[in-house]
């Protein structure tokens, strides 16, 4: 709860705000995501008369929440309106909350600091329509005897309880006594108890767990890279020993490895699209005896944001700013750590000499203190503020380039300059001091007070037309029209700590200390996207119309949904995943906003209100050993759900073992459906029992080795393909005979084709290289089989036909091995090592040869007898191996780990034909199976590109990268340098290495059968592979090293 301590500290600095004017509330609630992070603190609470809902409110965050009591989750959360155009956030104490007898209206009363009132406080009343969520605000007279100190001590009590740490001025017991007692529920069943999470429900003396314990990421500083791709943010530190910096890639929607720096770093700023600077920048009073003032500043740290590697450190200085090309300006340590140093000079860091050099002849006195610095890189100008011993001050602007600027401006005594920023052209300087914002025209040496106001602003940002400003004590991001010097409506984001304009994009961004980052379209200042950061390197990004991206699982509890026509129905996270989930949303949205083509890039989304939101209810009733050793019987029940007058229906129940797909019913794995009606017809459960309950038993093989604790889960879909809640069941495996783990390696390479123009040179070599690199895997009995379509010495061809590929995969998938092995032997293939795979086994399949994707993105492997007559525009699909067929076999394979390597043209389309979304969609494709079953699929190219083979390497490029990564002794695929190479590491290494290999000469593998050979080959000048791995976990399969 480090955030709450810092927030309370900041708010305690407020001495007053402007009078709170009446304000209209928020509009009727629209379909939206409701974040489930706990409140941290509450002032007051009230129950609805039926005891179904609890209402809570906080004056610190001005947040009002509606809770579902039975499930202990947040139905909705709203911001209570604050003071209009205030200097600083409201300092508000909420004292009462009541609910009307009909349960329709909540009324909240409190006190707010008000410098215009004689007592310096005023009363405030909020009235909330609980059905529409409309809020009205009224300023009223403060109760007799009320004073500002009451509000200040209230805030101190909230801070003590939020941190559960006593302060020198107040104990936990005193804080508890100062705040109002939380109410008992109408029936007396529940009480409420204040905690460091805000509160907890209590029943019969026992605290009840919340549905979610999600916590926002404690953010001390955050910044977005100039290209909008990466977000770097510093976690709020619990101590000053180490600092963790997270890097989130918006393009891949993944976090990089956290960067850990030794020392107390408090600010991060991007230097360019790759590198950022981290430094400890907090200013302490010069003569402070506080222990923090005696804590040494850590060195400046320059980090490569693309790799997370620390690339350089520089001796520490206070308030460092960059002039570009490795040049920095900073103030001596004595300016922010007076007990540690007498150095108060302004210095420049010379990257060639690798040292700081003081700027001479500035005329600073020994007792002057530099308090803030800013720089304008293009011109080399630097501005800084100096506080004098008599509390007066001076702001200086100097030119470190041609030296034609050297002026100063005196400021009045008692003025505290907290922020400086140049305009884009470097001709003017914005100054923030004592809540006032001033523009200094450096050429004319004239000042203009601007309409904007901010108390202790943390940033200024300007595009030449607008000035935006905010800080930890501001409720929103202020805007000023510079031409007319008019205050514009603020942007909604509380406690913004950093922000700026993205270069060459009509986008403004700002980051909040509450753990969120928001984007706006600067053409009309409409909100584009809000990204919520959670602890544990998790996020969800959502647009105003409900599109979202996340790295949370489909059953995430960090967020839920509400819809306008059912404002008290809280829906699980996955409810609207099919239509509203948009992978790589941040990058796609920033790109299409810039190009003004979002209508074409982002497909229209249906109205949530028209969607059936009644969800089927699944329950696993038991798991018991099956008749066959190493199997279990899983029994479950399903019931239709009802909501808003609709019934859910029950469709396509699915069973998972340890979060991996195991079985489903009806079992139609290869039937593709194009319409919702077709899907319903295929997946409808035909009938339920007489009591309305559908009962089913799955018989499933289980692993005989590894952990005895197994988790089964199941869910079903409603008639609109909306996933129901997931039911889980923990099964403790009894002692059973152990199977010997086997590693099946099936390598397929096709050089020789019936169509001579399709012949390749190195596909069979690829199959041999993969087999060689996987000759042995520790802990597994090796089972190798190779399908090599090559020319024989007599000129004949070894066939690898569609039937041969299907037979080999079918053996692994459960076909009777004997007859299939005999048929393959008659075709010249030794498949005697193949067998039905079990959950104790691993399966690795590779294919090298031709691949083809039709105009709709459907992918096919081309076997040796694939038919594509010369002159025909498309091949005979019936002679190819479709992705649907591959899906059928891979779904039936019961192995614990499966990897599929495809070194062929357009192989990315095998998983992603352009519409695939990694989530529980109930689709029939290979991408859906990869998500559900945890299959790792490495494709040589993106969906529209060709794969290359290289004569010098004698391989396809993907296979060459794999071969390079894994050697008998280990190899460079050990990405984390732990002397072990896991299966997923090996595949990820190939993704990194292949583009480097692709810079050499290469021949398109399959260019003769692409529909646009010239364009495709040209685009693949640098081949880019794709790894589809949705497991978010490290593979247990160790290819090199000790298990």
UniProtKB/TrEMBL annotation:
Stretch forming the signal peptide: 1-25
Gene Ontology BP annotations: proteolysis
SUPFAM superfamilies assigned: C-terminal (heme d1) domain of cytochrome cd1-nitrite reductase, DPP6 N-terminal domain-like
Domain of life (superkingdom): Bacteria
Domain Peptidase C14 caspase: 744-952
Alphabetized InterPro entries for the sequence: EF_Hand_1_Ca_BS, Haem_d1_sf, Pept_C14_caspase, WD40/YVTN_repeat-like_dom_sf
PROSITE patterns noted in UniProt: EF_HAND_1
Keywords: Signal
One GO MF term: cysteine-type endopeptidase activity
Protein name: Peptidase C14 caspase domain-containing protein
Organism of this sequence: Novosphingobium ginsenosidimutans
